[in-house]
Amino acid sequence: MLRSLRFAVALAFAAPGFLLPATAGVPDRALPMRFELRLQGPADACGTTCKVWISATGSITADTPRDFKLFAQGHDLSMATVVLDSDGGSVLGAIALGREIRRRALSTTVGRTIDLGITERGKARAVLSPHAACDSMCAFLLLGGLNRNVPPEARVRVHQIWLGDRREDPTAANYSAEDLVLVQRDIGRLAQYTTEMGASIDLLDLALRIPPWEPMHAMTQDELHRTRLATDEARAPTAATLAASPPPAAAPQPVPRVTDGKINRLQASPISERRWAMVDRAGVASLARRHPLTVEGDHIGSFDLVVACGEGSAGYDVSYVERRHSADLTPLPAKLGKITLRVGASTVRLKLAASKRHSEQGELVTYATGAVPAALIGAFASAGNHSMVIETESDGMVTVIRLGNTGAQQNLPRLAASCGKAGGDRAELPEKKTGGLAAAQ
């Protein structure tokens, strides 16, 4: 018997007096996925038609399919819907659990369970909020449902599968032939599973276009139904968003300098795409890195980020130099309008000095600068994996790149010493040569 999933949205608003603030009672999505049976409540809101669902919250691991089978042994799951709220996780774990859900002819949806603190007939009463996310491999787990519903308020986001220990700074990592075999094998398994579940292979194609340094792609209602990830009646499509990310390596480029509003090209030391390293800019030592620029995996250019000594000890001068060209689905804008740098909760907007087209090269060259607090750069370069987000805006298009800190921890103390800034604990780190490739973090 086919079971409707439309109750998911109805449950979200069945008892508005019981809905809690968004931060209250939210489970830790980083923990391994756990399963709990819930009964719609309160009783006077749904009477004899109260629905039952399986709350599935957390990260998908290799053990998650086994955990679900153990959970199912002690419960009657007939007529239940699996409600997902997850950041994703293991490829093989998601495929195995999706097949188990399909074997039991269960339905799936995206939602967040809010307990009411009432228990009846061995089941906890709860309401279901549609304000939840199903990210990465969770989207393929959603496919396991015989019927699949995604409320308009929920988010389903996808991106490429990647080696987990090299996600933080993928362009700086090293990869072996065995790594490539592993990834391609899992892509093949995902393709087989996707068609087996009755979805379009376009779903996998959409995910594979988004590299790990770009934000995940938020699927529109049109995409959800076109790929058959959702099987309920299609709603009006929503606007897609564009993101930018790191592409292939480019030949060393001279660093532009702005004089009287014009961009002049000056020869400079090559800037690495593999790590942050010290470079010579017209006799001035700076810390720099190059990164490819993409929009949903479509290569549209590259940018350099250069950190140099600033006035006093409170900050550094940061320069952003971008070279952008058009692509099949991404026209070249007339100019950039806004460039923002973010580390954690700290944000700095750079001042646009020049952004103009060079017809002979068919590219848009942009130069922006700004004073950035030393604490922000220090936090980015501190021990461990940290990232910096670079966002640009132009003609309604937004590009977002997440840049890793490989090499920054070793080289920032050298820059700080040359600037006369206090480097804190980092200043005591031994200096390392920058001639070789950075080790994967």
Q: How would you explain this protein's 3D organization?
A:
The chain is of the alpha+beta class. It has two domains: 7-240, 2-enoyl-CoA Hydratase, Chain A, domain 1 (Alpha-Beta Complex), CATH 3.90.226; 245-428, Immunoglobulins (Immunoglobulin-like). The protein contains ten helices and 22 strands. The chain has helices at residues 7-12, 43-46, 64-73, 91-103, 137-142, 177-196, 202-208, 221-226, 374-381, 408-419; strands at 34-40, 52-57, 81-85, 107-110, 112-120, 123-129, 133-135, 148-149, 155-158, 217-218, 244-245, 255-259, 262-266, 277-281, 284-295, 298-309, 315-324, 338-343, 346-358, 363-373, 387-394, 397-404. The strands form four sheets. Strands 11, 14, 15, 16, 17, 18, 19, 20, 21 and 22 form a ten-stranded antiparallel beta sheet that branches. Strands 5-6-1-2-3-4-8 form a seven-stranded mixed beta sheet. A three-stranded mixed beta sheet has the order 7-9-10. The radius of gyration is 25 Å and the shape is elongated. The N and C termini lie far apart (50 Å). Residues 1-27, 233-268 and 423-441 have low confidence and may be disordered.
Set out the fold topology.
Elements: H1 7-12, E1 34-40, H2 43-46, E2 52-57, H3 64-73, E3 81-85, H4 91-103, E4 107-110, E5 112-120, E6 123-129, E7 133-135, H5 137-142, E8 148-149, E9 155-158, H6 177-196, H7 202-208, E10 217-218, H8 221-226, E11 244-245, E12 255-259, E13 262-266, E14 277-281, E15 284-295, E16 298-309, E17 315-324, E18 338-343, E19 346-358, E20 363-373, H9 374-381, E21 387-394, E22 397-404, H10 408-419
Parallel strand pairs: 1-6, 2-3, 3-4, 4-8, 7-9
Antiparallel strand pairs: 1-2, 5-6, 9-10, 11-15, 12-13, 14-15, 15-16, 16-17, 17-20, 18-19, 18-21, 19-20, 21-22
Helix pairs in contact: 3-4, 4-6
